[in-house]
């Protein structure tokens, strides 16, 4: 009996062949040309609620695919829950239930902890931009393919895009200035960040974004992080907590994941495959510009309109995070695959971040000169 993924591949191949044959027959019978030009539709579900800014980011990808394909490939973009849950999009892509997904690798961390190394793993000093560069130039894409296709046997193809800004430590009802202040708190995060926070004395719940505020209201969690000021503002984080801590090492190098059912992707004409792949890179730039604009504006709204106090995470907590990562790394490296990935990341960061840090001027110095008394450092 064929697996679901094999059925999906066979079905798509049959439709493609039939469309070609039908187009030839239609030409013979002088049927209207529009029939031969019917667009292919890609069903793409995200892991985000319909109201989240990340749906806007996903739409920047789909708009580019449609424009560059001249309408030959259109995208039916759906929010989390439209077909499957936020954490189930990888399985849905594998099974051919959907053709594509817009998500993050950490959401399938439950299949293999190595998934978290592609964005939410140990921070050796490299930013999200540094680590997205590792994915494309340092061998990370081959490790990612190996994990999905060889180790887990998944019928998917994936690419990463949009190097996210370091994620805030999150939202707290009271100030948290030392490691003692966070002991015993019930905290929402995902992936290896959950292991990290547990080592620091927290009790962790892994929840999709749309479930965070209701869980806070019911007392299921005491504190949480999601990702950025715009998403947090849109789902009402400011209504359940007023202390917002920026800067953290728990998820400082994440990028979006663009997943495709392998059969669907390989059945595309070569130029459409290229469009799908390179639209990820194009959307990455568009997402970055949009994030800079919206995240900064929404952070100001949180402060000025909602009475939120914005803090930088203390040195005490940041130091404790690095020490907790050290413990986790020793455990993760017992897995042969993860050891190879971490070795590769360390080698990349040692060389690339050395250049980045040596080359970067002190931007804070210039900012303080032109905007005195503004920066909370």
UniProtKB/TrEMBL annotation:
<dbReference type="InterPro" id="IPR006311">
    <property type="entry name" value="TAT_signal"/>
</dbReference>
<dbReference type="InterPro" id="IPR018389">
    <property type="entry name" value="DctP_fam"/>
</dbReference>
<keyword id="KW-0732">Signal</keyword>
<dbReference type="InterPro" id="IPR026289">
    <property type="entry name" value="SBP_TakP-like"/>
</dbReference>
<protein>
    <submittedName>
        <fullName>TRAP-type mannitol/chloroaromatic compound transport system substrate-binding protein</fullName>
    </submittedName>
</protein>
<dbReference type="InterPro" id="IPR019546">
    <property type="entry name" value="TAT_signal_bac_arc"/>
</dbReference>
<dbReference type="InterPro" id="IPR038404">
    <property type="entry name" value="TRAP_DctP_sf"/>
</dbReference>
<dbReference type="Pfam" id="PF03480">
    <property type="entry name" value="DctP"/>
</dbReference>
